[in-house]
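On clarity, I found the account of how folds are encoded harder to follow than it need be. For illustration, here is how one protein appears when written out as sequence plus structure tokens.
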Amino acid sequence: MTTKENTLTRVALGIEYHGSGYNGWQAQNHESITVQCELESALSKIADAPVRVFCAGRTDAGVHATGQVVHFDVLKPRTESAWVRGTNTHLPDSIRVRWAKFVPEDFHARFSAMARRYIYVIENTSVHSAIMNKHFSFEDRPLDVERMQLAANYLVGEHDFSSYRTVRCQAKSAIKTVHHLKVERHGSLIAIDIYANAFLHHMVRNVAGVLMMVGMGKAEPVWAKQVLDARDRTVGGVTAPPNGLYLVGVDYPSHYELATNKVDLPFFA
């Protein structure tokens, strides 16, 4: 997109952040530190004007992202590299702009998205790491990955996920399509990889809670389906902690040329 003075330019950014220490993504009315506030403050310095960003998916307090996508409109012409390098100079170390791209005015980080991908990471060992404890969820009881995968298979496809969302969820419909749900072990780490057209509030963490109960042997794999069929949050398991959750990718129509659905978790390299 050509940038000119007095012409609005729409910019998309790829954002990475460590969610510990932030009260989630979304700006709050009360005084609290959020990722959105930090990013808008930094962008406003580069734009020489207030900037409001729109994200692909709001994340809760303690949740991380390697593949968050946002967009915003500005009048001030800047190069794509300036939006990356310049903005990062004004951000805390726990937030980084990974890429920038000029996009058409019909692009919307949230409403143009076709699918999103999350990975929930569990440290399954006897002692929680002192260094990585903010990066992973933790379970010291052995988890059977094969049983967890059997349970996960029941959740693939289009379903009503009412039992897997928080009672505070404001989504108009609980019907979502899970394209894949894979459970894999990487040494002492277990990754729950879930890719869907959209997600409900706490959906991934509630899925993780059910799968962990199955993995511990406290429920049979078919329980995941029984919870699903009940369409009642009260029959589900415990909501898993936020610190194991990563937003790792968002898919958009190919004409936007945003190749964002990739995993970038260094501890799985």
Summary: The longest strand covers residues 175-186. Helices lie at 35-47, 80-88, 145-153, 203-215, 223-230. The two ends are 35 Å apart (CA to CA).
